[in-house]
C-alpha cells in the first residue's frame, strides 16, 4: 500500500495468511499501528493490497472493479465502526433503512424497524443520533450493518468509545446475533475481555501474526 498524498510505499501487513470458517467468531488483537483495521479494510474491499489475494465467500476481491466491489459488499458483509458513522440528519430507523433502500429491498422502513427491535431500540426508532447515547448509537450501527442479513459481519473496535458496562452489552448483542444468524463475526479489539469471548484470537504486531492460528 502507499501513503496517501505521497505515493510512497509503506508496509502495513506483511505475509499475513488468514482463513476463517463460516460461522466462526475471530478476534484480531494487537497494539495501535499493527495493521488490525487495515486487515478489516482489505477483507471488506475498502483497501487494495499491493500483493497477495483476498477471497471472501468464494469471491476473489483483488480483480473486482468498484461497481463489483459495491455489489459484493452489499450482498456479503456488514461493517460496524468504532465511531458509529451514523448520518446525523436521519433518524435511527432511516439510518438502518439506508442499505435496504440502496439494495432495492421492499418496505425498507418496516424491515429497519424490525432490525431496531432486534437490538432493543424499538422505542428509539424515530430519534436522531444526537438524541441517543453512545451505546444506543452503536446499536443502531449494528442494526444497519445486519439490515440485509449478511453472512459476514466485520466490527472495528465496536466497544472502543463505550464504558465497560455498555461495551459488555454490545459484545453480548454481537455474539447473540452471531448465534441466531449463524453468521461469521470478525472483530478488531484492544479489549482482552472481548477477545476472550471469541472462539479464536489472532494477535498482530508490526503487520505480522505473532500468536494465534490463521487456519480455521
Descriptive account of the structure:
The chain has one domain (25-211): 3-Layer(aba) Sandwich (Rossmann fold). The model has no long low-confidence stretch (mean pLDDT 88). The protein is built from seven helices and eight strands; from the N terminus they run βαββαβαααβαβαββ. A hairpin with a 2-residue loop joins strand 2 (55-56) and strand 3. With 216 residues, the protein is α/β, with parallel strands linked by helices.
- Which structural class is indicated by helix and strand composition? alpha/beta
The neighbouring-strand order within the major sheet is 4-5-6-1-7-8
SSE order: EHEEHEHHHEHEHEE
CATH superfamily: P-loop containing nucleotide triphosphate hydrolases
Give the topology.
Blueprint: E1 25-29, H1 36-43, E2 55-56, E3 59-60, H2 66-76, E4 77-80, H3 92-102, H4 108-118, H5 134-145, E5 152-156, H6 164-181, E6 184-188, H7 192-197, E7 200-205, E8 208-211
Parallel strand pairs: 1-6, 1-7, 4-5, 5-6
Antiparallel strand pairs: 2-3, 7-8
Helix pairs in contact: 3-4, 3-5, 4-5, 5-6
Short summary of the structure?
By secondary structure, the chain is of the alpha/beta class. The protein has helices at residues 36-43, 66-76, 92-102, 108-118, 134-145, 164-181, 192-197, and strands spanning 25-29, 55-56, 59-60, 77-80, 152-156, 184-188, 200-205, 208-211. Strands 4-5-6-1-7-8 form a 6-stranded mixed beta sheet, with helices on both faces. A two-stranded antiparallel ribbon has the order 2-3.
Which features characterize this protein?
216 residues, alpha/beta, six-stranded mixed beta sheet, two-stranded antiparallel ribbon, 7 helices, globular
